[in-house]
Task: structure prediction
Amino acid sequence: MADPSVTIVDKQTGREAELPVYTGTHGKGAADVRGLENKLGYFTYDPGYASTASCRSAITFIDGDKGELLYRGYPIEQLAGHSSYLEVCYLLLYGELPSAKEMADFDDTITNHTMVNEGIKDFFAGFRYDAHPMAMLCGTVGALASFYHDSIDINNPEHREITAHRLIAKMPTIAAYCYKHYLGQPFMYPKNTVGYAENFLRMMFGVPSNKEFQPRETMVKALELIMILHADHEQNASTSTVRLAGSSGANPFACISAGIATLWGPAHGGANEAVIHMLDAIADSGASIDSTIARAKDKSDSFRLMGFGHRVYKNFDPRATLIRQMCHDLLAEMDGDTAKFQMAMELEQKVLADDYFVERRLYPNVDFYSGLILRAMGIPLNMFTVIFAMSRTVGWISHWLEMHQDPEYRIGRPQQVYTGAARRDYPVAK
Ligand code: CMC
Result:
């Protein structure tokens, strides 16, 4: 059988271009349009890159119609049920689940890189007391480039691996520092005898003068689940940003900082914070759920229901299904804000039954529930996206590593359809 291909015909000139089609392990094929410009003299036009594969990747697979998410082939439901966040990090980075010895070594390596250079604290002194923690995270992770730039040869696989370890290990420490600066409390050093999630909660909520902060088991479990569900999500906006920044050979800490900036937006990782703002605004204004839904459907109003809809998932978001149950369990145990939770559940049920949302295949996404869980855990709103960034760091750096091993990688540089003024002459006074 001939290799799959598609032929594009230019009806004006009659010229044809045959484009090879690549199929991966799962999912739809992709026509290789690289020869199109030479053969027909056209680029492709694809705002939002919704129809464009920018690379070959073996890390994560999503089937949006089936609501399937696989990390290195393993279904997210199985990883959420049986794995730990650090084991998922190993899987994403190296492609296979670790043996007991590999896991112990990896755990040890990550644990031994959790401290940050004392000089990093000086950066925090420059941030306003009320700076958004995402602004501080973006700046501080970028600043790590100034500590490690000379020791990173991005063409050296060992240097790249150490960078990945440093990032995964230091993220919780930096994330907690952002919160401590915001509160005006002393920074807590990491403690290497406790687990990754517990250590983060300790650094966030502990204070040196009090007895050791001991997070509830349920809190640690909920955070671990949130981190596993957010660890990677193939070529989303922030991951693509990290790849694009990295494609120029830029310092990896600077690339991750670019990813953090992209994640911050409410259409992406900022949605979990935006969900709670939306629920608070509904409660404060006394608006009904029905009128809120009506606003979201009104095309003359820019308001959208935060936590609903997804570019890829068109039936359900499997992460949302997993986290929804945790949300119920946690709120029952922690005596959380049940009134707000009831409101969220009313919104969820009404949206699921509304034709506008059904026709457009808009369902609750992971961030609809993660915001509720984080709030129940007592985590302040402005730290929600920071926790997403901390969890996604492993995904970003796994893609950065994969890109640097890809023989087809080139600097990213999209084309454009120019619509500005036609060439004209500068009006020189005569
Ligand atoms: N509320 C009301 N209408 C919506 C919503 C919403 N949340 N999302 C999409 N629509 C409508 C949109 O107006 C459009 O309608 P029409 O066809 O009549 O013009 C249609 O649905 C398709 O929307 P789109 O903007 O073309 O879809 P997209 O794939 O470009 O955007 C999205 C995806 C996630 C940015 C969008 O659904 C959205 O803004 N949702 C709210 C923000 C949110 O929850 N983001 C978190 C995503 S999950 C976390 C992550 O992985 O980053």
About this structure: The chain has two domains: 5-53, 64-408.
